[in-house]
Specification:
Strand order of the largest sheet: 3-4-5-6-7-8-9-10
Number of strands: 10
Strand content: 5-15%
Distance between the termini: 44 Å
Helix content: 40-55%
CATH architecture: Alpha-Beta Barrel
Radius of gyration: 19 Å
CATH class: Alpha Beta
CATH topology: TIM Barrel
Largest sheet: 8 strands, parallel, barrel
Shape: globular
Length: 329
């Protein structure tokens, strides 16, 4: 396993990590979660990602049960949570969502209980909240760190400008600013990581825990000929995933990428994940495999990374034709 410093912090995260979005509680049970987390840990993974909203809190409970059972040395892994959406779904009441001091404080305590840990290594503001003063958000996260409940705080799906504003407030009041961002990043979702965040990388050393390196499984190639039963896009309520990825032009490119992967003698999944960690600004790519075979295949991305020569990267760009650029018009 390779380990990378998270931005300008001292924390080292495995370049491949494991997360529970969609899969925990909805697709797999405790036994499968135990097996997948154990395989990850045994292969050097030291970061496990979660959030209050995943399966309305049940995902964190499941991960917490596994962590309690495994009894791994707490210093050997990092675990995260995120706050914004709440965990009560349609039953959310005022102050049970968003980034108010009240919700962030209570969400942190609830996550600690569900995950059965004494502190969160990483705690994310799961979305920006324009209805709350950014100073309130930064002060609250700073206080949670000062109280020993959180070690590092960050953002998820924020814009570069919003992250820089949080740092401006932190600098103004001598507070701890956001250390990491959790954006979506894959071969078809590139703008934030390759354009929008560049000033933050350069000025603040932002760490990144990227999600969906396989575009919700689309870049595994399993949707090239339809939607397999039991797959993520077959789950009720996830039609938005189908609408986002199952488009003729994207499927055409996915098939071409699969042909390239075959020539390199690697799987398309391994190639797609390796491509994301080729970016030096990627601290860790979060894997979300639901089967042992998938996870082991995804973990081969470290070997595939060595095959991503400048020539191969150029061939990938010719297929994708979507590299973001600065429009000065």
């Amino acid at each position: 396993m390779e380990y990378r410093r998270m931005g300008h912090t001292g924390l080292q995260l495995s370049v491949l990590s494991y997360g529970s979005w969609v899969s925990f509680h909805k697709q797999i049970d405790d036994q499968a979660a135990d097996e997948l987390m154990s395989i990850s840990y045994d292969h050097g993974v030291n970061f496990f990602d979660n959030a209050e909203a995943y399966a309305l809190g049940e995902s964190e409970k499941m991960m917490g049960r596994v962590l309690k059972k495994k009894d791994w040395d707490r210093t050997s892994y990092s675990v995260s949570s995120k706050a914004y959406f709440g965990w009560r779904g349609k039953n959310n009441k005022p102050n049970q969502t968003g980034l108010s001091r009240k919700h962030l404080f209570e969400a942190c305590h609830e996550a600690l209980g569900r995950l059965q840990v004494d502190y969160l290594d990483l705690f994310f503001c799961h979305r920006p909240d324009t209805s709350v003063p950014i100073s309130e958000v930064v002060w609250t996260m700073h206080n949670l760190i000062q109280q020993g409940k959180v070690l590092y705080w960050g953002t998820s799906q924020w814009s570069g400008a919003e992250i820089m504003e949080a740092h401006r407030v932190a600098d103004q009041y001598n507070l701890i600013g956001p250390a990491m961002e959790q954006p979506q990043y894959n071969m078809f979702e590139r703008y934030k990581m390759e354009m929008d965040y560049l000033p933050v990388f350069q000025n603040k050393g932002l760490g990144t825990t990227i999600w969906s390196p396989l575009a919700s499984g689309f870049l595994s190639g399993k949707y090239n000929d339809g939607i397999p039963e039991g797959s993520r896009m077959a789950i009720e309520g996830f039609d938005w995933l189908k609408n986002r990825w199952l488009q003729d032009e994207k499927i055409k490119k996915c098939r071409e990428l699969a042909d390239l992967a075959k020539k390199l003698e690697v799987s398309l999944s391994s190639l797609a994940i390796a491509w994301t960690i080729k970016n030096p600004n990627t601290t860790t790519a979060i894997l979300g495999a639901t089967k042992k075979e998938q996870l082991l295949e995804n973990l081969t991305a470290l070997d595939t990374l060595k095959k991503l020569t400048p020539d191969t990267m150029e061939r990938i760009e010719k297929i994708l034709q979507n590299k973001p650029f600065l429009d000065l018009a």
